[in-house]
Amino acid sequence: MLISLDPASAVPPFEQIRAQIAAAAASGAAPVGTRLPTVRKLAEDLGLAVNTVAKAYRELESAGVVETRGRAGTVIAASGDRALAELASAAARYAQRAKSLGLPPAQALDLLTTALHEAYGD
């Protein structure tokens, strides 16, 4: 799995790493069991501090996208789609709340799109 950083991006490096690994897991480009580089190796490859990569890995692990197996390393977890299920649930709650407030679907979608652009730094 190739991870690349955009130094001109407003998105912090740890978030770029997290997002790329999560996307690879969700799309199947990094199937369950795919071993990730060690934190030290990836930090060295990307020219980052070890703590930057470690933060991305911790967030991925807490979301269930990866699991750390001690000396066996960090791998894409079988429960990697837990994050997608959680997001789908949040989207359903958002849709219901927007409806209960009387917002038309197009306006609710516009608000969500704006929030996503802000979150991703677009």
**What is the mean pLDDT?**
90
Cα-to-Cα separation, first versus last residue: 24 Å
Output the CATH topology of the largest domain: Arc Repressor Mutant, subunit A
Contiguous low-pLDDT stretches (5 residues minimum) are none
Q: What does this entry look like structurally?
A:
This protein is mainly α and 122 residues long. It folds into two domains: 64 residues, Winged helix-like DNA-binding domain superfamily/Winged helix DNA-binding domain (Arc Repressor Mutant, subunit A); 39 residues, no CATH class. Helices cover 58% and strands 5% of the residues. The chain contains five helices and two strands; from the N terminus they run αααββαα. The chain has a two-stranded antiparallel ribbon. Strand 1 and strand 2 form a beta hairpin. The longest helix is centred in the C-terminal third of the chain and has 19 residues. The radius of gyration is 17 Å and the shape is globular. The model has no long low-confidence stretch (mean pLDDT 90).
